[in-house]
């Protein structure tokens, strides 16, 4: 048999820790049941919405295409509704268009701003996926 060189104080400390954990384990079911009742059983998956703007060729830089990509857990989400919100100076964001993501998780909107306008893409979320907002893109009106 192998002898251990552990002090009596260390042995007593270990025994006290085990006793404390056992006692806490006996009380845990009473508090855990209350926590389970108040906790939502379904967690939604986080989503990420990326945005870019590109000038539309052949329009003399008067129109732009706003492209968004919707991801969840590094996978592209297909068939989800995305809203395009816009605002000008001294106004609030308002929905101007909606579209569904394609087979690649992409959504496209073509805009022709007449003044300096800020745009943001918004995914409202579903039963399984959390809502998300893209970064704000500011487009200027073309010079006359």
Describe this structure in words.
This protein has 2 domains: 39 residues; 93 residues, Sandwich (Immunoglobulin-like), CATH 2.60.40. 22% of the residues lie in helices and 36% in strands. The protein contains 1 helix and 9 strands, in the order αβββββββββ. The termini are far apart.
List keywords for this structure.
144 residues; alpha+beta; Immunoglobulin-like; 2 domains; 5-stranded antiparallel β-sheet; 1 helix; 9 strands
Count of DSSP-assigned helices? 1
Portion in strands? 35-45%
Would you report the number of β strands?
Answer: 9
Radius of gyration: 28 Å
Q: Helical residue percent?
A: 10-25%
CATH architecture of the largest domain: Sandwich
How would the global form be characterised? elongated
Average pLDDT score: 81
- Spans of at least 5 consecutive residues whose pLDDT stays below 50 are 26-39
CATH fold descriptor of the largest domain: Immunoglobulin-like
Please give the CATH class of the largest domain: Mainly Beta
- How many domains? The number is 2
First CA to last CA: what distance?
94 Å
The fourth-level CATH homologous superfamily of the largest domain is Immunoglobulins
The structural class is: alpha+beta
Order of helices and strands: HEEEEEEEEE
């Amino acid at each position: 048999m192998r002898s251990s060189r552990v002090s009596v104080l260390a042995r007593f400390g270990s025994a006290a820790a085990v006793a404390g954990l056992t006692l806490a384990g006996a009380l845990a079911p009473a508090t855990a049941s209350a926590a389970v009742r108040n906790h939502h059983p379904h967690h939604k998956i986080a989503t990420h919405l990326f945005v870019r703007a590109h000038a539309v060729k052949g329009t003399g830089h008067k129109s732009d295409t706003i492209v968004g990509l919707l991801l969840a857990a590094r996978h592209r989400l297909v068939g989800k509704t995305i809203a395009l919100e816009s605002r000008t100076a001294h106004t609030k964001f308002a929905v101007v268009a909606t579209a569904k993501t394609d087979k690649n998780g992409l959504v496209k909107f073509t805009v022709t701003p007449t003044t300096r306008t800020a745009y943001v893409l918004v995914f409202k979320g579903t039963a399984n996926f959390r809502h998300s907002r893209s970064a704000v893109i500011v487009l200027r009106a073309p010079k006359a």
